[in-house]
Amino acid sequence: MAQPTYEWRPPDRGWREQDLFDLPADGNRYEIIDGSLHVTPPAGPEHHELADEIRMAIRQTAPTGWRVIREIGVQVPGGNLIPDLTVLLPGAPRERMWAEPKNIALVMEVESTGSRRHDRFTKPALYAEAGIPHYWRVERGDFGPVVYRYRLGEGDHYELLSTIGPDDAVTVDEPWTMRLDPSVWPR
């Protein structure tokens, strides 16, 4: 049996943001949900390539002052999450490692095998509770990427706005007006 390469002890209380700084920089994604530590192994190259392509496509249309950031931390009630992409409002602080929800217009998750349930259920509920106005979830469909666009509704939950597949290039209005064309993203 392999021995752990990093020794640590969980805190005697629930996990907090400052505890994350003591964990190894080993490529795993460390997130806190309701005081519990959640560890996700590094995603594969296809996942990162798709997230990078989407980031570039969104960034090219961004009005001055808006920022599209990969894997920045987001503070949510009872924890800290790391979405694949975060769109920060103009004027959002640049020096913060963990973005506050009031500075976020959109978060996006690219589903992978190890994150599917969190990306579909856990994370959207926490993003909605935090008051983040828009959530996109991207799946790899049989014929290419599919984007599920959600808007924050009444009662701290997301409402599905639309589903955009590789044959459905459309213009969307959030967080600004842009053309989304999943057919140009990697499959």
UniProtKB/TrEMBL annotation:
InterPro entries, alphabetized: Nuclease_put_TT1808, Restrct_endonuc-II-like, Uma2
Domain annotation Putative restriction endonuclease: ranges: 18-173
Pfam name, any one: Uma2
SUPFAM superfamilies: Restriction endonuclease-like
Domain of life, per lineage: Bacteria
Name of the molecule in the record: Putative restriction endonuclease domain-containing protein
